[in-house]
Here is the input.
Amino acid sequence: MSDSQVETLSKQFKYFSEKVYPGSSPLYQGLSARIAEDPEILSLASESRKGEIVPNLFFATVHFLLLQGTEHPLSAFFPSLCSSSGGGGDPYPYFRSFCLENKNRIRCLASSKRVQTNEVQRCACLLPAFELVARESRGGPLSLVDIGASAGLNLLWDRYGYDYGTGRKYGNVNSPVQISCTVRGDPKPPIPEIFPSVESRLGIDLNPIEVRDTEEMLWLKSLVWPEHTKRAELLQRAIELARRDPPRVISGDVVDVLPGVLSELPRHSTLCVFHSHTVYQFPQELRDRLLSQITELSRKRDLFEVSFEWWRGKDQPSLELSRVRDGKRREELLAYCSPHGEWLQWVQRT
Ligand SMILES: C[S@@+](CC[C@H](N)C(=O)[O-])C[C@H]1O[C@@H](n2cnc3c(N)ncnc32)[C@H](O)[C@@H]1O
Here is the structure.
């Protein structure tokens, strides 16, 4: 690895320790600050798959090996593995020795896996957007396409229960997956008492994650930062639910497969493509291609696009709805949301 590559990666770990992990993962915050100063570990991290967010991917590989049962004193510092963790001592020497002892396994995982966190909590933000789509299509059934679906868990949003702190529950109150989300301020989002009906649901992903594959599920769990034990529990419950009747996620680059997928969806249904925490990571050229492809496809059939993305340069993720018809799109900002969907601030006025 060249000096300039080491320097770039060091800056990335430093950035994550100062801007991304604080307030969310004290463990990764401390470790990434130290990695930024450690050429040997930086060199190992540099072998991560190109195009991925290296700190998140690198930590996930270590987390994966620990969750898989690799015995090491480092596990004592991971709240996901040890409930009494975080008590004391400096984890870095243990982290360093773990990385060096497991170099080959880390290399192999980091160069082949992707950051594909599937966050079901985000369904709490998507739900009012789906409700708006259903209202505008006069209650017709929805045909949903999730771009960058990962394991497809967000396609199953209507099998979950929701609590927005309004004193009542929504959706399936008996579901093992119960999602809480705080609504900030006014106006209030349109949360439906009766959920929109879904005619078909399909995910597209470069690398679909199979919910019945134990190792792939372990990888999904490794992507959850170690302090986020409630998120990990919710994920586990969503996985168990999805395993009974898994969502269909097809493999491919969205711009290659979307036209074929859309042409096969039931004619009488309302077409709604959605994406969360996916498109903002696309290179600009791919993002532009997707945008013009969707706009072009609307010449054949009207469609809605729901976007929950954290656009570059913005302080927080936003939820947007585009009505795309006859080659024209009308975009509307609906809400600001936390990255994982723990809160939602509705801004659209009906
Ligand atoms: C961070 S995950 C988000 C998963 C899910 N949307 C969620 O919010 O929980 C992004 C997903 O997009 C997929 N992806 C990235 N580029 C893609 C592309 N060009 N076509 C299809 N999927 C893509 C990745 O494989 C990954 O599974």
User: Anything to note?
Assistant: The chain has two domains: 3-112, 120-346. DSSP finds eleven helices and twelve strands in the chain. The longest strand covers residues 328-337. The chain has a mean pLDDT of 95.
